[in-house]
Amino acid sequence: MTSDRAQLSIPAIEIGIGMLLILAVVSLVIVSRSGPSEPDPQLAYYAADTATILLSTGTETTPPIGQCLESQQAFHQQCEKLTTGVNGLLPDYLLYHIDTPYGTVGYEPPENIETVTRVRATPHGSIAVTIYYV
Amino acid sequence: MLSEGTSLLSLVAALVGVTLLLGGAIVIVEAAFIEADRDTSEQVLAEGYSDRLLEAAAVGDGHTNVVDAEQLSTAATAAASETDQYQLHVSLGERSLTNHGEPSTKGATVNRLVMVVDEEVKQTGATITIPSGVPTVKIHTAPDGRILLNGTSMAVDTPTAISLDPTTETAIAADEPITVSYPRIGEQAHQLTVTVEPSNDP
Fold this sequence. Notes:
The complex is a heterodimer.
Chain A: H1 10-33, H2 41-56, H3 65-68, H4 72-89, E1 94-100, E2 103-106, E3 115-122, E4 125-133
Antiparallel strand pairs in A: 1-2, 1-4, 3-4
Chain B: H1 2-56, E1 66-68, H2 69-82, E2 86-92, E3 95-100, E4 108-117, E5 120-130, E6 136-141, E7 146-149, E8 152-155, E9 160-163, E10 170-183, E11 188-198
Parallel strand pairs in B: 1-4
Antiparallel strand pairs in B: 2-3, 2-11, 4-11, 5-10, 6-9, 6-10, 7-8, 7-10
């Protein structure tokens, strides 16, 4: 009594097992060599530099951000200038979001996109500068 | 007997084949990791150089990202002369500060945001307006040897520096185009780009 069902030959099974073995070993090597993922170092520099400049000198068109945070009124008066100033500071391929005690400036980053945030303290509260690629 | 010998031969050949494939795959993966490590070392160097340049050219307490353009240029040239194993390219905006070695597509680049002070503005034209706040202007070329400073004619030997009233704008005119330069007032945002590449030298 013979079966009509096709059967894999033993060498084919052995080749398959061999390939799986190779894949397993290579995967082990890769997994053992790769560490935990870190934020994009360039984005981190952009975020840190933006925060530092905003705090120290301000941009070409705005004073240091501390002056914008003296009161709610001061923030609203400087908010638009701040947007223009940060736009002039960052390259075109980046967007930003700045969180302050009196509100936010910039563009909310979409979900599932890599962002880097740097927080700096001012006499009027902390600011969080988030940078991400367009 | 013949069948057993053939099977053994096949088994040995298969084992040799699998071992070779495995070894080859590991060599390729290891080479990729070595390449990645090399890129990492260039990245670390580029980051280190960018920090050093910002510190060397800093205006004020050194933690403000405000730099002097001339000091930055000097520091970049000095840094480039220190290294033989790597090539260093530094630019401020579109201005190249140092190009040590032939540029290539390899290597690592770090971009830093800086505010630049005392940057020189150079202008050429028959009529030039110097913004208020500028204390002096340098006349580089004046073909006629005469200029009109706020409407008043004066003779100049070039190059020469003229003191201005910084409280107002100043108009400089001449019959032929003249070239002047003056320090920019305030800071201007630029991108400092540092690229480190492996040296092509053997």
